[in-house]
Structure formats: structure tokens, C-alpha cells
Amino acid sequence: MTEMSALGWECAVCGATRSIADPFPFRCPSATLTDRHHLLRLRSRELVAHEGAQQVHGNGGSNPFVAFDHRFAWAAFAEAHGMRSDDRRRLVEELDRAVATVDGVGFRVTPFGRSDELSDSLGFSTDGGVWVKDETHGVAGSQKARHLMSILVHLRAAEIVGLLLDRPRLAIASCGNAALAAATLARAVEWPIDVYVPTWMDAAFGDRLDALGATIHRCERLPTDPPGDPAMHRFREAVEAGSVPFTVQGPENALCLDGGRTIGWEIAAQAKHLGVRLDRVFAQVGGGALATCLSDGLDADGSSVALHAVQAAGCAPIALAWDRASRYARPAQHWGDVMTVWPEPHSVADGILDDETYDWIGVFDAMRRNGGSPVVATEEHIERAHGLARDAGYDASPTGSAALAGVLELRTAAGSGRLGDDERIAIAMTGVAR
Question: Taking the model in full, what pTM does it have?
Fold first, then answer.
């Protein structure tokens, strides 16, 4: 029997725990509708490198949800209930075929390599440069499906072992790539899903969700709503009424932080195969799950890479919170003072306009571990980065290329904060242009 990595869940705020065998480990047991300031983090044991990393070093072929089976929380849950590795593999492959039927592609290792054009455009030396993880041609055109797949496979495993007898509706608050990925996966398994969106959602995008069978709820702000996104408020109310949080915010469903780590595991294996020792990784940050998982995945393979969390000048709650957090020995216990709602977010990179960074604790932990920091990108650099990415052949949206705007900020900065010519930088292109 393969030793499993995941041991259980523990809240980073209050210390409450959930067993790895829990069929519904979505939120901290202390969280309530009026107190979402809790975040379950996975407790794991260190494992020796194994065949999984060997299977994913290339730019295609392997399904990471098969290759890294022993690292997943969902797999440890399934094994705790008697579901062995061959059964888990069959489940993942069955889901993958269903997803490919709907979307045209399934879960595969995505390309990673040096972009000579971007590296030259930004003036890096031949020893340094920009290495790109291209997620734009993955399931639903972004990395979001990675986060959601671990929730879906956990739910299907719970059905198979008899712990989930009736299918509750899935719920998500999003009007971008996360909603599209959620609706795609839900359609693949014919699971009903409600998508909570702001009133200004583009009608054409709504048509795409309709085509996937999602039920759309346009959410107006109510006089009784607290600060924050009204779509998120309606989503949380649906979850309290019994819906499954099928979402990419860790405080709402910690399982999304399980599958998201695959992007970091893949980069670590691919960089090792290429003989590249990365110095820094830049990640665009909206809700913060991507940055958290990217860094956690890299660190799991011993890659101590400094993380820079990139946000737009028109919506940068991470940078403000980073400054506030310095006042506290344990910032997570002062969530309401540290992470506050950003007023009137705006940017062409509209996919990272979350008015608060829900997974800020994981992002802060990652930046502190390896000497990283927040980067606030100007709108000029966001637009320039998008142009550079498209010219280099990446079919990315302004949101999908926003990490590159962070590279531009530090590349043009004066003083000790700037990027050196020989530094090796990793970014992810995370959303296809639509």
C-alpha cells in the first residue's frame, strides 16, 4: 500500500480540526454565516520523491490527478474508507473522460518552458529569463478546473463509498473562469449547479453558462448586506441552506486547495527535468487560491522559490494587508483588522478584482517562507504585459497574463527591489482570452 501524504485538516485561525476521513471537510467547524474568518489548512507528512514526479516532467501526457494520487487529501479520504489505488485511478479516469466529452480536453500536464521572446523583450540575460506555465489550453481554458476537480472527485468518492446518498446542488459565486470551469465539471457528471453573479455580468458569458446547464442568479445588493460582493453573500446563504460550495476560495471549501497544488508539483518536476533552479514565482492574485497552491506545490518538492503576489493598482487588498499584518505576531487571529474589503475595484484584469483576498493567510505564509512580497501593478503595466504575452504567442486574457505585469513592475523598479538580469522567473498564463 502506498503511504498517503495527507493527515487531516486544521484551522489556521482557531486551531479546530477535521479528520481526513470526514466526507464534508469544506469549512472549519467554527465558521458560521456571519463569521467566515476561518481557514482549514491541510496537515501533511513529508514523503520521499516517487514515481509521480517522474510521470509529469514532460509537456503533456500524464494526468496529474493520477500521477500524484498519494499526495491528495481526497485520495487519503477515499483510502480511509476502503477505496484502493486502482479504484481511485478508475474514478479519476472516468471523470476525465466525461470532462473531455464536454470540454474537448481532459486533465493533462500543461506546458512549461522558457519564453525566449518574453525574456528578450524584458532584457534578461541568457542565464536568466521568464519560464511560463501555460494553462490557457487546459480544461475550460484556465487553472480553475484544477481546484474544482479535487472537490468533484472527493464528492464522487463519497458517493461510491456510500457517504453521500443524495446529490445536493453545487454553488459558486463567479462570473469568470471559475464559473465556466465549475459549470463544465458539473455538466460532465450531470450535477445541478447554481452560479451567483453580479448584475453587470456580460450577457454573452451568461449564454455560455446557460449552454452548460447552469442556473444563473443575478445578485443585487440588498440594504441589509454587509460590505463585500453580494453574489458571495447569496452563495453563502445557499451553502447554509444545503448546497455544496463548489468554489475556489479556501475558506469556503478547503478541498479547492488540494487539487490546485498540482500546478506547483508540475512546475517543480518540469523545472528539475530542464535543469532550472527558479529564483522567484509571480502569481496574479484575486481570491488567492492560485498563489497559495502554486507555492505550496513547489515547496512540497523542496523548491524554495520566493513568491510575489501580483494585484492591480485598482484592487490591491493584499499589499494593504501585508503592511497591517506587521503589527501582529499572529495576523490570522486578527483577520478583520488585517484583510479588509477594497472599495470600488477596477482594472482591465477583471478576473482579479476580488474585493478581498479570501486566501490571504496561505499567500502570506508562502511569501514569508521564502522571502517574497506583494507587487502592485499599474494599469499601464497590466496592459503592456497583455500585449507582450499575446505577441509571444500566449492566448491569454489581461487577467491571465497579469503575473507578467508584476515582473514588469520589478524589472523597471529602482534600487534593491528590482529583478536582476540573471534571475530565473516563473509565471503562469492562467486564463484564455474570450
Answer: 0.93
